[in-house]
Amino acid sequence: MPYPNVTVTTNNSSGENSENLYRPFSVFSVLTLTLLAMLVVATFVWNLLVLVTILRVRTFHRVPHNLVASMAISDVMVAGLVMPLSLVHELNGRRWKLGRVLCQVWISFDVLCCTASIWNVTAIALDRYWSITRHLEYTLKTRKRISNVMIVLTWLLSSVISLSPLFGWGETYSEEALECQVSQEPSYTVFSTFGAFYLPLCVVLFVYWKIYKAAKFRIGSRKTNTITPMAEVKDAARQPQMVFTVRHATVSFQTDGETWREQKEKRAALMVGILIGVFVLCWIPFFLAELIIPLCSCDIPPVWKSIFLWLGYSNSFFNPLIYTAFNKNYNNAFRNLFSRQR
User: I want to staple 183 with a disulfide (CB 3.0 to 4.6 A). Which of 11, 29, 165, 248 is the partner?
Assistant: First the structure.
């Protein structure tokens, strides 16, 4: 059935037009593409601001800020190299008109940057877990060495997953159908989805469960490990009011002594929880579709492919927002950076 009130004519058939996600000059297409363009710019600017801050502030030239810098680099690359071409892809109705070479470059950077972003989130979660549960063993020197190893492994694994199709593991471009997409070879689908998402998902969920257990154990042990003085036991029957006062003073003293560390650990656990939660919500629809569709030889409407893809891209926008919101040092550094510019 033809669309009403459409005055623009093209050489394509009506069946092809109905399959396009965005019809030319429609209000929906203009609004949607404007919002996506704003998301691209905001993602690039915010992550670039984090990188500039880390480079300019000397106190940030150490762990865990090297992990944050690695995450910001991957997210800047998503916004600068991947999302603009994806926007062009959407403008053309999800048809690729830029040739095979640029298709392969785009898909390779897409997989590389998104996989690196996901594994950087995992590395930050692991770093927070070890700093909370093993703060005596996890010294600054050990933390620096482990964080550097995690950064190298993150980019190495991401490179292996992204470059595999270039060496014959499936095809990314179809000239007849003008399609450019991640290789649909079933074996590569299983390898890439598990390496890029399901494995780090298991890691971050396990990490947060351990952080929750450690925090719960620490709070429980603090409540039960109160020492009552001997004099207090002897005089308990005769001076109940004094006993209450002594106990109250003892508990208050212990709580005050642990307040700073407990608050720091609580904020770190909350930050990791929100970071993981947003990561899961943004990427799980896309990776479920990426795993199921090639294996069952089925398909979903193009509009849902676009929604799932851009929802995953939006994770690169939320990552710096979440991390800096729970770090007062970044807030102060941003304030100083803007005040100097004035």
Answer: 165
